[in-house]
């Protein structure tokens, strides 16, 4: 996309950070709803794990107090999503999800 139309790396990087944080927030809300409905320990563990990653994603990528350059913010967002995708099933399995 041409840079003259407002589509530059800052625009794309901001969207990547935003979408990663929204995805993690959705995982947190999903775990919360499952925990409220079923009361399972594994859902509570998923809620805490997803919530911590959501908080880390927001504070490191979207917050005004974050002083990281854009490249590091995008890398952090992608790494947090990868960590969630790899570790979330392990956390759930370790806490009794079958």
Major β-sheet profile: none
β-sheet strand percentage: under 5%
Number of strands: 0
| Helical fraction | over 70%
Distance between the termini: 46 Å
Radius of gyration, in Å, reads: 16 Å
The number of helical elements comes to 3
- Mean of residue pLDDT values: 92
Give the helix/strand class: mainly alpha
Shape: elongated
- Spell the H/E element sequence: HHH
Low-confidence stretches: none
Describe the structure.
This protein has 98 residues and is an all-alpha fold. It has three helices and no strands. The longest helix has 30 residues, at 9-38. The radius of gyration is 16 Å and the shape is elongated. The protein starts with 8 loop residues before the first helix and ends with a helix.
Topology of helices and strands:
Layout: H1 9-38, H2 41-62, H3 70-94
Quickly describe the structure:
The chain is mainly alpha-helical and 98 residues long. The chain is 79% helix and 0% strand.
């Amino acid at each position: 996309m041409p840079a003259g139309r407002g589509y530059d790396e800052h625009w794309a990087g901001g969207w990547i950070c935003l979408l990663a944080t929204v995805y993690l927030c959705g995982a947190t809300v999903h775990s919360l709803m499952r925990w409220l409905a079923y009361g399972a320990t594994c859902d509570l563990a998923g809620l805490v794990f997803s919530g911590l990653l959501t908080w880390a994603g927001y504070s490191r990528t979207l917050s005004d107090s974050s002083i990281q350059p854009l490249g590091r913010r995008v890398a952090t967002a992608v790494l947090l999503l990868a960590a969630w995708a790899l570790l979330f099933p392990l956390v759930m399995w370790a806490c009794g999800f079958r």
